[in-house]
Amino acid sequence: MSESFGRAFVYGDGINTDMLAPGIYMKHPIATIAAHCLESVDPDFARAVRPGDIVVAGQGFGIGSSREQAAEALKHLGVAAVLARSYGGIFYRNALNFGLPVLVCREVDRIGAGDLISVDAETGLVRNKTCGATLTAAPLPRFLLDMIADGGLVPHLEKRFAAQRAAGAAR
Amino acid sequence: MAMTLAEKLVARAAGRAQVVPGEIVTCAVDLAMIHDSGGPRRVAPILKRFGVGLWDPGKVVLISDHYVPASDDETRRIGAVTREFAAANKLAGFYDGEGICHVVLPERGHLKPGMFVVGGDSHSPTGGAFGAYMFGIGATEMAGVLATGEIWLTVPETIEIEWRGRFGDAVVAKDVMLFLCGQLGMEGGRTQAVHFRGPAIGALPMQERMTLANMTAEIGGQTGLCDPDETTAAFIRAAGAEPGDIARWQSDADAKPAERHQFDAATLTPQVAAPHSPANAAPVADHGTVKIDVAHIGACTGAKLVDLRMAAKVLKGRKVDAGVSLLVAPASRRDQDAAAADGTLQILIDAGATLLPNACGMCAGYNGTLAENVTCISSIARNFKGRMGTTSANIYLGSPYTVAASAVRGRIADPRDMLS
Ligand code: SF4
Description:
The complex is a heterodimer. By secondary structure, chain A is of the alpha/beta class. Chain A has a single domain, classed as Alpha-Beta Barrel (Aconitase, domain 4). Chain A has seven helices and seven strands. Chain A has helices at 17-20, 30-35, 45-48, 69-76, 89-97, 142-149, 153-170; strands at 3-10, 54-57, 81-84, 102-104, 116-120, 125-128, 134-136. A seven-stranded mixed beta sheet of chain A has the order 4-3-2-1-5-6-7. The longest helix of chain A is centred in the C-terminal third of the chain and has 18 residues, at 153-170. The two termini of chain A are 32 Å apart. Chain B is α/β, with parallel strands linked by helices. In chain B, 30% of the residues lie in helices and 19% in strands. In chain B, the strands form five sheets. A five-stranded parallel beta sheet of chain B has the order 4-3-2-5-6, sandwiched between helices. In chain B, helix 2 (40-50) links the parallel strand 2 and strand 3. The A-B interface holds A 60, 63, 66, 68, 86, 88-90, 92-94, 96-97, 104, 138, 140-141, 143-144, 153-154, 157-158, 161-162, 165 and B 22, 24, 26, 46, 49-52, 122, 137-138, 140-141, 143-144, 147-148, 152, 154, 187, 190-191, 220, 222. Bound molecules: iron/sulfur cluster. Residues 65, 100-102, 121, 123, 299-300, 360, 363-364, 380-381 of chain B line the site of iron/sulfur cluster (SF4).
């Protein structure tokens, strides 16, 4: 469940929230914002990316504004996980709360564009099937994996409270 | 193992003896602050989806400040939704039109050292001035906190920023933060806990420390801590609360922050940030020829009682330049009353200031905006394009001293020339 497998889309340092969710599209629905995700760095990204693919980047991924759409756009396009050396703090929280696994990985330079990689968010194990390398990322704790599996914070809590009500009714 | 103050605060909230930067923990929240903009109107629908109420209304404070006073049907509706929420829940506090949330919260004794607090506003690091771990979250996360009383957190690294010596005349917390924005850039804090230390910080009154902590948001820090001391305790007692165990909430002497920056307070000069970022800060002399149309003293970061007194020191016996409107929005009703009682307010009015309501007002352009194409110098925290509601406006940032001096001269001016 916590393992993803897909192609790597590799970018450098300083991918900010304006690149992920360009300001001029912020009034529009998430599908429109997602169609322009990362276009200023890679005009083909939104068209080329397929569900299950993985975004790989350097320092400060998601720095900038607090807009939740930066994480939501990646999620909307089906990105299964992000590997980066470091993250903008608010983006990092937003991504996990939207059910997008974002992992800190210091060895991202061992992943090339288009490499087939698998990411296990529970163990932090990253395998590069193209070059055969095994990398490590910081694993996520169980409660966050559960939240991600449920689709993020709101569905996770919805489920938790529904279960509590059901338990109360059964008593 | 030795811990920094930030680590101690997070460890206590997480129910742990020890935490290490980078690990993710779940913390129990001691207090949640929400306001009229990001509060009831955004969180109530999510709570409804959850099918639950507040985890503990006695740990929730609601403050109306962004859409106060109501100016149209939409803001009247927001006010009504906010008041309904307060009426339906027995909250720890509901302050309607009493002032700006970050100022009212400590003023009414809700903050003390050791607490773990979340606020539904990006300037929530302000509470760190009291030795509490306080930080800002969005409406979705706030709904989760209000339903569960818990939040997950990556244990932050600590960045210590030490100021040795003493600040010179008319050099204040706002200058410190504009200088740091220029030095470290807008992401300098990288969501760490910024910890302000050293004799120059210890000598600052609480409301000045609040300005430091407030603008930690501008350097990307999650919270902005100051060491709780006698000044902290006295402020809390005056607010009618008990400060608790201050000695417990100190960094261990051998704790290791991730970074340590040291500065000499005596060398700092008044700073001004040019449009459109606080990171465009430079000494005031570098902006000497810029003519201004509006001088604005407002916001949680720039219109508290200490700030109003700074402006009065410059404006006493002087008049605002004929080409400038000086707008003053005292940050809270209590601060305005205190300024009225000690003559500060009269000095401002005699100089030609126009008083605005005790609310956010023009700060985020929520309620009232700058006119088109004006040049403004303001004591608010950020000057992004469009911040005060008009994208064509040029906004400079400075301390209340610098704003007042500029109002008198009609151009950006060094307040140190006007104090003798
Ligand atoms: S005064 Fe400005 S910075 Fe402070 S809470 Fe209000 S809008 Fe935010």
